[in-house]
Amino acid sequence: MNIHIISVVPELLESPFAHSIMKRAADKGLLQVTVHHLRKWAINEYGTIDDYAFGGGAGMVMMCEPLVKAIEELSAAAPFDEIIFFTPDGKRFDQPTANELSLKENMLFICGHYKGIDQRVRDHFITREISIGDYVLSGGELAAAVVVDAVGRLIPGVLNDETSALFDSFQDNLLAPPVYTRPEVFRDWKVPDVLLSGDHKRIEEWRYEQALKRTQEKRPDLLEGE
C-alpha cells in the first residue's frame, strides 16, 4: 500500500511512522508513507499557500492553486484510489471504514490547516472526507497519523499474528473482552478460572459474553443497530 500525505507541517508526521508497527510495515515493504510539504507547490517564492476568506471573517484559507497542483502532479505518477481530506465535518472514522481503506492500493491524504481548504478543491478532487471525532485539531496531521495506523495494521503481514486484528474492538460492533497475563495470582487477584481451563470452546464463549457485557456497559450505542 502507498499513502501520500500533503501537509503544511510535515515535521508532525516524522515520529508516528518511524517506530513500532508502522516502521515494521515499511521495513517489510508492505506500507510506504510519503509526506509532501505543500509549500513545494506555493504560488510564489515566499511560500504562499493561503489567503483571506472571501466575505471576511477570522482565519486563513488554504488556496486552490497549490493544492490542485500537488494533487495533479502526484496523481500523474499513479492514480489514487482515494483522495481523503481530514475535516471536522467529515464522516466519523470507524473500524468498518478502516477495513474498507485497508483494501486500497494507493491513497492521498490532505491535511487541512487554518480554516480549511477552498471548497472548490473539495468539490472537484476529494473522494472521501473523514473526521476522527467531534472536536477541532490545529491541523489534519494527527488525524492522518491515526488513520494510517488504523489502516496499516490491517494489511496482511503487518502484524506478527494476522488473526489479531480480527478480534480488535469494534470489528463486530463489540468492545474487546478483558485480557490477563502472568502471574495467575497477584495481590490475591486471580485470573478467571475459565482462561486457565484449556477448554477453547468455553474460553471463546466467556470472551463473547464479556465483550457483550462490556459493550452494554460502556458503549450501548454500538448495539443499537443489532
Model description:
This protein is of the alpha/beta class. The chain folds into two domains: about 1-150, Alpha/beta knot (3-Layer(aba) Sandwich); about 170-225, tRNA(m1g37)methyltransferase, domain 2 (Trp Operon Repressor, Chain A), CATH 1.10.1270. Helix content is about 30%, strand content about 20%. The strands form three sheets. It has a five-stranded parallel sheet, sandwiched between helices. α3 (about 95-100) links the parallel β5 (about 80-90) and β6 (about 105-110). The longest helix has 19 residues, at about 200-220. It is elongated.
Question: What's the short version?
Answer:
This protein has 226 residues and is of the alpha/beta class. The chain has helices at residues 20-27, 64-77, 95-101, 119-124, 141-152, 200-218, and strands at residues 2-7, 32-37, 50-52, 60-62, 82-92, 106-111, 128-131, 185-186, 189-190. The longest helix is centred in the C-terminal third of the chain and has 19 residues, at 200-218.
